Request: fold
Amino acid sequence: MLDIDRVQTTAEKYKLPLVEALMVDVNRQGINLPINPTENARRVRFSLDLKIANSMDGDSATTTKFYLSGPTNQTSIYTLRNNQLFCGGIQIGEVEDLSGDDATLFYPRREGTVAVLNPKSKSNCRGCKFCYSDALLKNDKPLPIEQYISAVIANLQKVTDQNLSTLHCVSTVTGRFKDKTELLEYLNKLRHDLSQEGYDGELLYMGSEFDASSIRILEDLKPFTLIHTVETFGRRKELLRRKKAERNLAEIRESLSIGKSMGLETSFTYLIGLEKIEIIIKEMREMLGSITRIPTMNIFQPHSEAQGKLLTPEAKSLEYFLAIREELEKLFIEAKIGKPRTWENYRRLWYLKFGGTDLPQNHLPQKIA
Reply:
């Protein structure tokens, strides 16, 4: 049986279009680059025009553009040659803008309407065993905070034609602040300076610093979204750096619940591939009462042999990920907490459909002219 036939068979078992299954599978396996033009980067990014039939039975072909980042992997069934992506021996798409994945000080998402900020050098973050930060090319030497925020605003003024009110969200995704005091000073400065330039929309912070005793200090930053970096439910002490692992799930739920009661948007991040399906569903159900949005769930992408050993045994197959997707979809629809925001992450479980309805296709970092 051809590799793509196996993917198709698994997709049909879960009543999914082939496109959805392929994108999940590409993300979990990474890309085989027999000739690596990216200075042998361990992690790459690129845009993909996926050109396949909706099924292998001759349905009309569709072309869909995606943006991907992931590890290079010589054992992957997805091979890139001459800007063409193959599944086994079958061409499934064309690749543009292939480059080594790097950490930069700020970058766009959601067709240029979301600014993602990295003020504390994500490429230097260490401690969690599953992290890929050491596989990133380093283009994020930190600046003094005032200088950094000025540089961010200057860039945003340029890309928005001096109209920052057109932005959808400004997100900060780097931890590594010395303490909550330093982080709050940064967030207050960011809110003040953005407001001075006409942006009073959503600020988002992704990290683990705020707990039940400190979350109320975010009141003056609204509209504000707090995303707690949970990553794993049952393997926290094993996989997380010590400071992050100190918070247990009950404490995280308490702080997010307080944030929710204050009118903050609340959610968390989670890595798919580290734990059994039963654990994921049980703990996700427990978390639902404390969040206002579907969690940001990333497919775990190993970048080394040691990281590959972190996978739960079931996660070595595509079926594990599609089964989780099916169960979580039912759970989230029942909880009425909206749909996945496809622009938030590129290694996700949902691409075109959620609960039988179309998802907004605003996941590219920049709008296509």
About this structure: The longest strand covers residues 43-53.
